[in-house]
Specification:
The chain has 346 residues and is α/β, with parallel strands linked by helices. It folds into two domains: 257 residues, Spore Coat Polysaccharide Biosynthesis Protein SpsA, Chain A, CATH 3.90.550.10; 78 residues, no CATH class. Helix content is 31%, strand content 28%. The protein is built from 13 helices and 15 strands. The strands form three sheets. A five-stranded mixed β-barrel has the order 6-9-7-8-10. Strands 12-13-14-15 form a four-stranded mixed sheet.
């Protein structure tokens, strides 16, 4: 199950409602959603891949992922967060195969090498079937990142030396706290990659998330739109994982990153000898450590450092790299035409 319904407002102005970040080549030559499908396809039969998105994005996703059938898309009637979406997915999967293990992926991750990723997912799937637990995959921090959530690792699970109880889920920390987590061995980045049997998720929701579980009979009756209309907006972390005692974590050995802001493009795209990441018709002269993106027109950098410069659809955006994570706040202060991420061509 690949979650691909978001807008990606932190990649404004390139990311728009009609072309959000999962459809953009932010980490390489192919759209992020295509990378995600290609990464998991050697492990999961292609016909068992499902992409959860909205109706407006369906045609673009089918175009971005060759060979994908429209029946493999699960179209959310409205966005209500990851808890309702994953509950709906688990319900659908459990009807097809009561013993199925469900792997939940995001469409905006960069993971290398793919072979190690698939091996870890396969091993975690076996653990999920054997132990009947909700498994998440954590990654050892490599920097004091304030944009990610963290997992505090608990006791090792008997007979499964690679798996641990989850002691706590920690929200995005401030810089000092992130440095503390980096220095300690008991904290991992929370990747948001989940592995569990579909029926285990449904059972856990019934025990710990009554505000959602009470509406699951609507799905039994085939009333998907009514379910989404009435269900509260809720993330799976807040709604279930932070309260269930049945959550475990497996530490990943692969390299992982969440392409959540423009600064992540600087980490994941190849840079020139001066540290500049340039995409499109870009010329950098006496510039250092800049990110320049031109998918319409040209960008010339001269005597600049640590900037993000984006040229698209008649709009130019310039900001310090260190502040691009604040784009959601910026959008609230812009005129409505720009805040809606629909720049004019004028």
């Amino acid at each position: 199950m690949i979650l691909a319904g978001g807008i990606g407002s932190r990649f404004w102005p390139v990311s728009t409602p009609s072309r959000p970040k999962q459809l953009l080549p932010l980490a390489g030559p192919d759209p992020l959603i295509a990378d995600t499908v290609a990464r998991i396809a050697p492990l999961v039969p292609r016909e068992r891949i499902r992409i959860l998105t909205n109706a407006k994005l369906a045609p673009a996703i089918l175009e971005s992922v060759p060979g994908l059938d429209r029946a493999q898309l699960m179209i959310e009637p409205e966005a209500k967060g990851t808890a309702p979406a994953l509950a709906w997915a688990a319900h659908t999967i459990a009807r097809e195969d009561p013993d199925a293990v469900m792997v939940s992926l995001h469409s905006d991750h960069v993971i290398r090498p793919a072979e190690e990723f698939r091996a870890l997912v396969a091993g975690t799937a076996r653990l999920a079937a054997e132990y009947g637990r909700l498994f998440t995959i954590g990654v050892r921090p490599t920097r004091p990142e304030t944009g990610f959530g963290y997992i505090q690792v608990g006791e090792r699970i008997a007979r499964a030396p690679e798996a641990f109880d989850v002691a706590d889920f920690v929200e995005k920390p401030d810089r000092d706290t992130a440095r503390e987590y980096l220095a300690r061995e008991s904290y991992l980045w929370n990747t948001g990659i989940f592995v569990w049997q579909a029926r285990t998720l449904l059972s856990e929701l019934e025990q710990h998330t009554p505000e959602l579980a009470a509406l699951l009979p609507l799905l039994d009756a085939g009333r998907t739109e009514a379910f989404f209309e009435r269900v509260p907006v809720l993330s799976i972390d807040e709604g279930l994982l932070e309260v269930s005692p049945n959550v475990a974590v497996v530490e990943a050995s692969f390299d992982w990153d969440d392409i959540g802001s423009w600064d992540a493009v600087g980490r994941r795209r190849e840079a020139d000898e001066s540290g500049n990441v340039c995409v499109g018709d870009v010329y950098a002269v006496d510039a250092e450590d800049c990110i320049a993106w031109a998918d319409a027109g040209s960008v010339v950098l001269f005597g600049t450092r640590d900037l993000v410069v984006v040229r698209t659809a008649g709009l130019t955006f310039v900001a310090p790299r260190e502040r691009t994570a604040e784009l959601k706040e910026l959008l609230q202060r812009l005129p409505d035409r720009l805040r809606r991420l629909e720049p004019s061509n004028g």
